[in-house]
Structure formats: structure tokens, C-alpha cells
Amino acid sequence: MTIDLPFIWIAFKEIIKSLPTTLILTIVPLLVGFLIGIIVALVRIYKTRFVYQAANGYVSFFRGTPIIMHIMVIYYGIPLLVDQVSLKFNLNIQSSKIPIILFVLTALSLAAGAYLSEIIRSGIISVSTGQLEAAYSVGMTKLQVMFRIVLPQALAQSVPNFTNTFVGFLHTSSIAFLVSEKELTGAANIVASTNLKFLEAFIAAGIIYWGLTIIVEGISFLLEKRVTSYSRGGVS
């Protein structure tokens, strides 16, 4: 068996056409998950009445179960729910018309929210209480302290963890192929199946994933250097 090097380039050009889908499946869930994560982290830190236990259960469930299960449950469960509600209330809505990518984005967003909430929460509790006491002493409210003192520092300290999560979800997006959503891994499988050159196709896909990871890590390095400049007494 020999490797068809020219085919790697052919596969690369075909597979990279699915890059926008992979980026959507990575970036959108992380943005939505970031908003969910902040809310859940604050609820758990301040132990907000009525929703505190629900927030704990949400984080425990989505961090304690595989993401592939979330996708499958939502992919098969939501259409069933939509059809039943539509039938009951005569809404004339068909689940078959809902784009598959919405199911995947929903599952990944909920999972991202659980993981990011823990990152944000650990960042928040790492801020020294002395700073909080100083802020309260000059008349700042809890909301002002959180958004002007705590969150900026918490998020800055969490940049490496955010980067790891981004890379993790970049790779996790490949699961979408199991529900017929064509992203990088799915495209590689399709290209390979037409020529039975799976090794070459997945080498091409691996190069793309690796390149994206290097870019993300480079951006993270520059961002981390920038946001932590205050701790060095100046702006880099």
C-alpha cells in the first residue's frame, strides 16, 4: 500500500469547502454558551433562590454525559416534541422542515454553556476579596463590582481555558456528521468513499484541523498577553 500524495491535495481542496460549516458549529455554540455560562455561573455563586438547584443540575448533566448523546437526544427528541405540539394546537409546523444544523447548534450550545460556566465561575472566585471590599467601601453596587472589577479579571485569567474549550469544540463539531451535517470530517468521509482513499482524505482533514488549532492558539497567545498587561504595570 502506498500513499497517493497528489490526492491529498485534491482532497484538501474539496474538504476545505466545508470549513464555514465547521466554524459555525464551533463559534455559534461558544458564543451562546458564553452567555449561558455567565448566567449560570452567577446563579451558582450567589445561590439564587429557586434556580440554584436547577443550575447545578444543568451543569452536572451536561458535563457528566457525552456530547454525542446530547446531539442524538435533541436530534430525535425535538422533532417528536414539535410534531406533537403542532398536532395538538393545529399549528401546521413540520419538524422535517427544520434544518438539521439547528439541532446540532442547540446541543452544542447547551454543552458549551455548562463547560464555560465552570470556567467563568472559577475565574470569578479567584478574584481576591480585598478588591471587592475596596469597591464596596467606595459605594459601588454589586452589579458594578461584578461587571467593572470581577468579570474583567476573571475572563482575563480564563483565556487559556477558553482556548482549550474552543479547540475542544472545534474537534467536537465533527460529531455533526453522524446526523448528516457535512462539516470537515463529513466531507473527508465523502471524498474518501468516492475513491476508497480514506488515509489520504483524513490526512488532508487533519492538516486543516491542525492549521485551525495553530491559528487559534496564536490568537489566544496575543489576546492573553494583551488582557493581562495590567498585571505587569503597562500595556503591551
From TrEMBL:
Listed NCBIfam families: HEQRo_perm_3TM (TIGR01726)
MF GO annotations: transmembrane transporter activity
Subcellular localization, as worded in the UniProt entry: Cell membrane
Pfam families: BPD_transp_1
The UniProt record lists the keyword Cell cycle: no
Protein's GO biological process: amino acid transport
Segments traversing the membrane: 23-46, 58-78, 98-116, 201-223
Membrane topology term: Multi-pass membrane protein
GO cellular-component term (any): ATP-binding cassette (ABC) transporter complex
Protein name: Amino acid ABC transporter membrane protein 2 (PAAT family)
